[in-house]
Amino acid sequence: MTDTPAPTSDATPTRDYSATLNLPATDFPMRAGLPEKEPKLIARWDEMRLYERLRDTARGREKFVLHDGPPYANGHLHIGHALNKILKDIITRSRQMMGYDSNYVPGWDCHGLPIEWKVEEEYRAKGKNKDEVPINDFRAECRQYAEGWIKVQAEEFRRLGVEGDFANPYTTMAFSSEAVIATELLKFAVSGQLYRGSKPVMWSVVERTALAEAEVEYQDYQSDTIWVKFPVTSGAPELAGASVVIWTTTPWTIPGNRAVSYSPKIAYGLYEVTEAPEGNWAKVGERYVLADALADAVFKQAKVTGHIKLAAVAADALSSVTCAHPLSGLGGGYTFDVPLLPGDHVTDDAGTGFVHTAPGHGREDFELWMEHGRDLAARGIDATIPFTVDDGGYLTADAPGFTGRRVLTDKGDKGDANQAVIEALAAAGAMVARGRLKHTYPHSWRSKKPVIFRNTPQWFVYMDKPIGNGPVGDTLRARALKAIDDTAFYPPAGQTRLRSMIENRPDWVLSRQRAWGVPIAVFRNTETGQLLPGPDFAHNDAYAGRLREAFLAEGADAWFADGAKERFLSGFVDDLGPWSQVRDILDVWFDSGSTHEFVLKGRPDLKWPADVYLEGSDQHRGWFHSSLLESCGVNGVAPYKAVVTHGFTMAEDGRKMSKSLGNQVQPQDVIRQSGADILRLWVASTDYWEDQRIGKKILDANSDAYRKIRNTVRWMLGTLAHYDGAAVAYADLPELERLMLHKLAVVGAEVVEGYKEYDFKAVFSSILNFMNIELSAFYFDVRKDALYCDPKSSLKRRAALHVVATLYDHLVKWLAPLTPFTAEEAWLERHPGEASSIHLELFPDVPEEWLDAALDDKWEKVKKVRRAVTGALEIERREKRIGSSLEAAPVVHVEDADLLAALDGLDFAEICITSQITVTEAPAPEGAFRLDDGTPVAVEPRLAEGRKCARSWKILPEVGSDPDYPDVTLRDAEALRELAAGS
RNA sequence: UGGCCUGUAGCUCAGGUGGUUAGAGCACACGCCUGAUAAGCGUGAGGUCAGUGGUUCGAGUCCACUUAGGCCAACCA
User: Fold this and answer.
1) What pTM does this model have?
2) Do A340 and A249 form a contact (C-beta atoms < 8 A)?
């Protein structure tokens, strides 16, 4: 170590040689200004008809089809849409660049309730009533509404950089789509998979319409409550003569009672009334089965003054019990057996511990009843659910003894049904007690009047009925499960999730009592129940053809136009009289579940099945599910080969975004402030298979990453301003250049693998790390000297330029699917031209010869020694002995033969960016710098000797020895000579 | 309440079949450079791998439970 002052201190005044250097020069700005630049690039792509060019370029290539799951045409994009569409765009762009013809056709889901609501809302604002508007006028307004939002959303998707056939998207409401959807449904009818069943739905008597859960609001309401005896008729002998007691707030549902539910988790007891007032409903000597926790309350309500518990009743004993209906004495209408069924929904918080179960009047009741369908059949019990209440809230003939009584009036007030039922129960001696209860009860959003649960006819598809004449066990469920096994899932858990849903799901309910949708275009014979079309109908094809023609010309409105019955049925049946036209529409899930038919099969530029579907994980229940069932029902297999799912986007703290918390991130805001490429980088950086987070901090971090990428690209562009495009043969490249090509090849493999496996964060981190660690912090830093200062003729310089051009070309192409705007901007810097676009390029080949693991190993050793040198220089810097590393000329004692060999033949000073360096195997002096990780290298941090070169800033003894250029190194003098000769 | 999933440094992510002091990039702190300059380079400090209990010679990695969170279970898409 020397203490002599730095020899630069007395150097001659430095001449400014910067004009003689090959410094980076580019118009590619450091600051992107993406919010302004991106729309211009979109306009450019429009102008050059990039989409058409992409298709032309790829014509004849193998197709790779990502089928777009249609968003609902309602409202502006939110962050979830942005994530979804950007992921899809990354996939189609990367596949296109891998050499496929990867066409993307965006689509929209148009039918359904939310749009009906909006249109209805507009009606209400104008004081119009939906029911007074002709249905096809109403449908036309819904169509118009959807069209408006499709335009808005298409622009918003394009602003994200999404490339696709936005001029010809698909919609579920296109006439051609409606024709396919309707005829697809007919296929289910023809193969016998469609049947008419029933299900309870929320029903508003006032509006005479079914309501969705979201159309219902809960308000306080005073209900009549009753406690009713169900006499035990068989089962546990110890309960002979006793009654099971139920409690209900809807006495009018008693005629619909078919079972009593109990819970195996509740303690029950057998009780006897020992003391009661004269004329009381509950009489001395009567025995009741009740939940222990509720017995006292029940007896109190029943005005019983004395009771005893005779025995505990085990839940096991209840399972085989059958009761009589409390009205079994009434005109013979209720003589069926009422079974006890175990139900998890039963609690002992309120009531009696037994729940009156009317499968036509409650969701849980219905589900419990359907669940036990087979057991009931085995017990000889008819599982048919009665239609006890009609549209107007009147009890029907299915409620013998009460026909014509009314649950609710047209104004939503209580009718006479409850009173009639209570009187009948009292007359039958079945009442234990009655009361009133104020509780929350569902009301219609529109009329603010109470609603009821009412059994209604619905259309179902069998999950477990053998299909057609196929093999035994060929059911929709079996087909779907097989199809799931044959599908690849990213992430794999999606397979489990979808499988368990298909395994457990009930029959598919297709019908909705709504206006805006595709009809279930079938007829039903009201006398025989026969369906048309159907397995036994001779004119299935002709009927489907007639329907298709009509829908293609007029859309599904044709079904709702006057005279539809004659139009579609005449000539196919002898007597039109008994045939009733089904007016229900299809669940919109059937619409979107059919997109593969009218998009993938319907367009020659696509193919069926799709290579991949990509949606949020909620679509296991939605689009993945309905598409699978629809296709399995019709085609027998899934419409997709692979399913990719993404999680949901959370706020920065990992919790759900919500308006009230004010933690929402809107894609429009991100685009306005930072640009779509920043949002896209966020998508690329995240583990989207799981839920992701987004927020200011995270977006800032992505902006930083973007800047790093941009600056690295910018430096390459600036450097390449001095490149004449001449290639240097691989064999002539210096080791450092070959090392970079090796590293690039490794990154390339990771990038392509990442794109193939839909693992974009791997692509992102691979590129970013390479740029940071290998390029910016190492290769570029080392090579600046040669690139800036070497003579034009220098092989090292020419080789470096060639390799920088190669790095640039590969990296920018690999980035193109992630950041299409910036990649295009960078591309055009070097490849200008009206027809030029990076998106028309393919991912570049990576020559086999670039891979050189031995070289990589060797340079790992070089870098190890380099770390020791930079470590030593850091100490010098701290001690203020040097500033720039060029002020140093360390002596490096390498105490390991392998490490020493690795340095052989290399200009190690250049690699360490020092002016001079001495590598020696001589023993190191005491106090030499060592890394504390045990690297067998010691460094003496000496100062460089000589004068500072005014051009390259290196400090070398040779400076001053050239007579023409006395203030520079010999290398720089040579460069200046060449320059002078050239100019 | 049930089905599926997740919790590794401030942030985003790596951590095949369990095996040395748990890694990277960014951010942060400090320093250098001033010919990538609203840039570039270096060094450093950050983690009881959500918690508890088990299996094991040994667990971030396997099991159970707990806890926090997400999706689904709607005539919602």
Assistant:
1) 0.91
2) no
Report which residue is nearest nucleotide B32 when distances run from CA to C1': A883
Å separating the CA of residue A711 from the C1' of nucleotide B28: 22
Question: DSSP letters of A379-419?
Answer: TT---PPP--B-TTSBB-TTSTT-TT-BSB-TTS-B-SHHH
What value does the CA radius of gyration of chain A take, rounded to a whole number of Å?
40
- Nearest nt to the A18 alpha carbon by C1': B35
Contact predicate A684/A764, CB 8 Å? yes
Structure tokens at A918: 């001495």
Q: How far is the CA of A765 from the C1' of B19 (A)?
A: 28
**Ramachandran category for residue A314: left, alpha or beta (phi over 0 → left; psi -120 to 50 → alpha):** beta
Q: How many CA atoms lie within 13 A of A828 on its CB side?
A: 17
Q: Which nucleotide is nearest to A788 (CA to C1')?
A: B35
- The string of pLDDT tens digits covering residues A554-598 is 999 999 999 999 999 999 998 998 999 999 999 899 999 999 999
Tell me the CA distances in angstroms from A337 to A141, A229, A235, A840, A936, one per residue in order.
Answer: 51, 14, 12, 73, 91
Mean pLDDT across chain A: 88
Q: How far are the Cα atoms of A111, A147, A453, A556, A810 from residue A137, in angstroms, in the given order?
A: 15, 15, 30, 13, 57
Give the ipTM.
0.94
Q: What is the dihedral of CA A657, A659, A664, A668, to 10 degrees?
A: 130
Measured CA to C1', the nucleotide nearest A111 is: B77
**B7 closest protein residue (CA to C1'):** A654
CA distance A329 to A69: 57
Strand B footprint nucleotides (protein C-beta < 7 Å): 1, 3-6, 10-14, 24-27, 31-43, 69-77
Distance in Å from B44's C1' to A940's CA comes to: 22
Amino acid occupying residue A11: A
Token pair for A376: 């009931």
Q: Answer for the pair A46, A154: CB distance below 8 angstroms, yes or no.
A: no
The owner of tokens 């009292």 is A426
- Rounded to a whole number, what is the distance in angstroms from the first to the last CA of chain A? 45
pLDDT of residue A11: 45
> How many Å from the CA of A275 to C1' of B33?
101
Q: A488 φ, ψ to 5°? A: -85, 135
Q: How many CB atoms lie within 10 A of CB A401?
A: 16
Rounded-to-integer distance, Cα A675 and Cα A821, Å: 9
Q: How far is the CA of A650 from the C1' of B11 (A)?
A: 15
> Which nt sits closest to A768, CA to C1'?
B25
* 3-state SS track over A146-181: HHHHHHHHHHHHHHCCCCCCCCCCEECCCHHHHHHH
Place of tokens 């040097």: A882
Strand order of the β-sheet with A523-525 is A531-532, A523-525, A579-581
Q: Is A75 helix (H, G, I), strand (E, B) or coil?
A: coil
A61 contacts A99 by C-beta, under 8 angstroms: yes
* Residue A423 CB coordination number (10 Å): 12
Closest nucleotide to A24 by C1' from CA: B36
Residue A498: nearest nucleotide (C-alpha to C1')? B4
- Output the six-digit token pair for A830: 């070097």
Asked if A94 and A759 touch (Cβ cutoff 8 Å), the reply is: no
Q: Give me the amino acid identity at A287.
A: R
- Distance (Å) from CA A619 to C1' B3? 14
Q: Annotate A602-632 with b (16+ C-beta within 10 A) or e (fewer).
A: bbeebbbbbbbbbbbbebbebbbbbbbbbbb
pLDDT tens digits along A789-848: 999 999 999 999 999 999 999 999 999 999 999 999 999 999 999 999 999 999 999 999
